[in-house]
Amino acid sequence: MSSADPLLRLYGSLPRKSPGSAAAKREALRRLGPVPPRARVLDLGCGTGSATFVLAEALERPRIVAVDLLKAFLDELDAEAAKRGIGDAIETRERDMIDPGVTRSSVDLLWCEGAIYNVGFKTGLAAWRPLLRPGAAVAVSELCFTSDQPPPESARYWKSAYPPMTTVDANARAAAAAGYEVIGTLPLPEEAWWREYYEPLEARADALADEATRDPELLSVVRDAREEIDARRRFGSSYAYVFFLLRPRAH
């Protein structure tokens, strides 16, 4: 993806590429339970490192492999890691996260926040299960309906925007079927949507408004973002971004 790509022009400069917060990440880690010192950590769909740096700070001498398809994001992550003096602890890889190039039974903590939709919830969990050591911890976040019967306007919008979207319970059952024990679930708080993500996104869309009128591809991307923000305002209580906190079941 080049710097001229409309998605990168809209999202590239944002501090986060999806809803989230450092506090929610730390709470997810706390609920997962102890992670061993010098843990092998796999951060899939890492973006520019919003989770990577929280994990590097919260864990004891972790060895983190951060995977993303976008070199521009990884370059930014590498630069920030060097600035913080932790470059030796983080290895970035420009790879498809379904095949991160990690050996089997080598991962102590797998983290995938706001990114599993790229490969599918069931597909991702099935592909990553063999990479985990016995007792490894897994935190994966996914967009979910909060009830079996969401409001019709919410159901219509998400059927178009994200057809695979289903409920928290359905995803928990899918995780169990893929060979995981579901320790718990953790919905993101509302501030993780607005202060951390949508407010900066909306400001960026406003800044690109004039340019978008002359660029149909950018205009389409900006319109999609504005529609998503409007959906959150109108019927956001019907869905949530939810961390699924998992451990692999023993065979």
The tally of domains stands at 1
Number of helices: 10
Strand/helix succession: HHEHEHEEHEHEHEHHHE
- The CATH class turns out to be Alpha Beta
Multimeric state of these chains?
single chain
Largest sheet data: 8 strands, mixed
The CATH superfamily turns out to be: Vaccinia Virus protein VP39
Structure description:
This protein has 251 residues and is an alpha/beta fold. It has one domain (18-188, 236-248): Vaccinia Virus protein VP39 (Rossmann fold, 3-Layer(aba) Sandwich). It has 10 helices and 8 strands. α8 packs antiparallel against α10. The longest helix has 20 residues, at 216-235. It is globular and about 50 Å long.
Give the secondary structure arrangement, pairings included:
Elements: H1 6-11, H2 22-32, E1 40-44, H3 50-58, E2 63-68, H4 71-84, E3 90-94, E4 107-112, H5 121-128, E5 132-145, H6 152-161, E6 166-167, H7 168-177, E7 180-187, H8 190-207, H9 209-212, H10 216-235, E8 239-248
Parallel strand pairs: 1-2, 1-4, 2-3, 4-5, 5-6
Antiparallel strand pairs: 5-8, 7-8
Helix pairs in contact: 8-10
